[in-house]
Design goal:
Elements (H helix, E strand, L loop, with lengths): L1 H10 L5 H16 L7 E7 L2 E8 L2 H13 L5 E4 L2 E2 L4
Parallel strand pairs: 2-3, 2-4
Antiparallel strand pairs: 1-2
Length: 88
């Protein structure tokens, strides 16, 4: 099983430094914005396409997260997979 995991990880391409920078910048921006303190947003970037997953509490948070992602340099598009989850 370990051998399969090692082999599979070697087949995966190395992370693109530009994608890593986009993900890092957006994660930092979201962490600094108090309006996202009650959310769980997962950011992934592949070839300049940002994928937002997880949940937010309001549609305004969703819109803002998408806008923030689009504002990061190098972002080609945003795939919004966020869901709205209300309550505790």
């Amino acid at each position: 099983l370990v051998v399969l995991a090692v082999a599979a990880s070697r087949l995966r391409p190395a992370p693109n430094p530009a994608d890593t920078a986009i993900t890092t910048e957006l994660n930092q921006a979201l962490a600094k914005d108090f309006s996202f303190s009650n959310t769980q947003i997962d950011v992934k970037t592949f070839d300049g396409v940002v994928i937002l997953g997880g949940f937010v509490r309001e549609s305004e948070q969703m819109r803002k997260a998408v806008d923030m992602a689009k504002a990061v340099g190098g972002v080609k598009s945003v795939d919004n997979r966020l869901t709205i989850r209300s309550g505790g």
